[in-house]
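Work package 3, deliverable 3.1, input record:
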Amino acid sequence: MTKYQFDSYDEFIKAVAESKAEYRAQYRNLSYKEKIRQIVRLQQKAYLLGRMKFKPWPIDDNRHD
Amino acid sequence: MVVREEIVDDYAIGGATALAYYSDNIFTEDIDVFVYLRSQSPVLIDLGPIYEYLVRTQNARVQGQYLVVEEFPVQFLVPYDDLSREAFARAVPVMYGDAKTKIFELEYLMAIMIQLGKQKYRERIRKLIEERAYDEQKLEQLLKTHRLHEKWLVLKKSVEGE
């Protein structure tokens, strides 16, 4: 497992912000279909926990556009 | 499909399914599809033909307020006020795989969430503010036009303080 070490709390906060920004930039570049697949992944987790009224949407999780 | 078969004249996706286009980590169980039925009276709107068509051709089933089409719970809605009509009229085309679809613009999705004021929208709004993904000027103008600006200022101050 990768361990991260920070010299200060501010450095840690900065790293978190950069990581979030990077993730968001990656997300923005996804196709709409791939973004919908992310909803489905959350649905699959919720379904396993019994928190869904419906089944997760039947979208193939293995394809990437 | 319902457009191709002239069951509806036009449609656009709203709600969380549209919001996922603009922001990550969105969870929803259903799809909000706004439909425009040119032939219908503005007073009495009958979604029956859509339901009837999808039940007959797609084996869809009714479950509560949803029509479950191929395991997708879809809520068909008709733009119900000036804001939702404008959101519908200005919906933008996006590609879903090879298919072209239309979704509400982010600022309209935000304005509708502000208007409805549901608790679950609070976190979404807080995240959108943090992400700064929206056009602030456009949103402000939209909220002023639809007399939601005061509500927005209160909400914004409240979520920014969290």
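The mean pLDDT of chain A is 87.
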